[in-house]
Amino acid sequence: MRKPLPFGISVFVALMLLASQAFAAPKSDLWPMWNQSNEANAASFDHQKWQQILDKYVVVKGQHNLFNYSAVTPSDKALLDQYIVDLTSLDPRNYSKDEQFAYWVNLYNALTVQLILDEYPVKSITKLGGFLSFGPWDDDVTRIAGKKLTLNDIEHRILRPIWNDERIHYAVNCASLGCPNLAQTAFTGENTEELLNEAAKQFTNSDKGAKIDGNTLTLSSIYEWYGVDFGNNEQAVLKAIDVFRDGQKLEGWSGKIKYDYDWDLNQP
């Protein structure tokens, strides 16, 4: 009969198994209460505070939009916190769908920055969250219309199932170098289409989106985790990338394909 492993080794093995399963992408699963709108309401959300933060702390360096977390002043952290309070005090269902999309994307990105700042310095967002968790995505981070929400709720139970637009993956930012860039401009009901196309173009033409090295094509793990949103097979995914890619087209690629993602913090 095999002896049980010592406690310390058992814990180590459990941690290694957890690490090997580090990121399991959630499925798109509609939260029905959020799939409502008032298209007759011409009012818009005020994202000026978020724009002030972006203007001051987003640093463009090569293919990356970095966020200068270490430079954020107490007054600007308070400005960010107040922006989130302002947004979450409103019920987005009372607004048009265009306004709602901008609301959710900006809120997701602002909450992510807030999470990092609350724990800074930190090397990776994956270090946040509860014991044995891989990041904070399943933690309750806000409350809207009396409901607690997580980042995963916003992305996978609201944005993805309601709008069914693969460009959402280029818009929400997870504070990591491998992630599509945090937009320099706050989303609004008017500029969403332009910003989504710009984000898609930036990512698909960057090395972190798709990089060719000889006979090997390295794609962002986003296309593996959320392949269902980009197409029903690998070639369909490549075709979806080509829509925004200016360089060598990928559809029909017959060489090796691998996936990669850099979880290091997106800071200068």
Structural write-up:
The chain has 268 residues and is an alpha+beta fold. It has a domain at 43-206. Helix content is 41%, strand content 12%. It contains 10 helices and 7 strands. It has helices spanning 7-20, 48-57, 74-88, 97-119, 151-163, 168-171, 192-204, 222-225, 227-230, 234-242; strands at residues 58-61, 64-67, 140-144, 147-150, 210-213, 216-220, 256-260. The strands form 3 sheets. It has a 3-stranded mixed β-sheet. Helix 4 packs antiparallel against helix 5 (151-163). The longest helix is centred in the middle third of the chain and has 23 residues, at 97-119.
For this entry, give a set of tags.
globular, disordered N terminus, 41% helix, three-stranded mixed β-sheet, 10 helices, alpha+beta, 268 residues
Shape: globular
Structural class: alpha+beta
Q: What is the average of the pLDDT values?
A: 92
What value does the Rg take, in angstroms? Answer: 20 Å
Written as H for each helix and E for each strand, in order along the chain, the element string is HHEEHHEEHHHEEHHHE
Give the DSSP E fraction (strand runs of 2 or more residues). Answer: 5-15%
In what order do the strands lie side by side in the largest sheet? 5-6-7
The helix fraction, in percent, is 40-55%
Number of strands: 7
Q: Catalogue the unreliable spans.
A: 1-5, 7-21
* H/I helix tally: 10
N-to-C span: 54 Å
Largest sheet: 3 strands, mixed
Pfam families: DUF547
InterPro entries: DUF547 (IPR006869)
Organism: Enterovibrio coralii
Protein name: DUF547 domain-containing protein
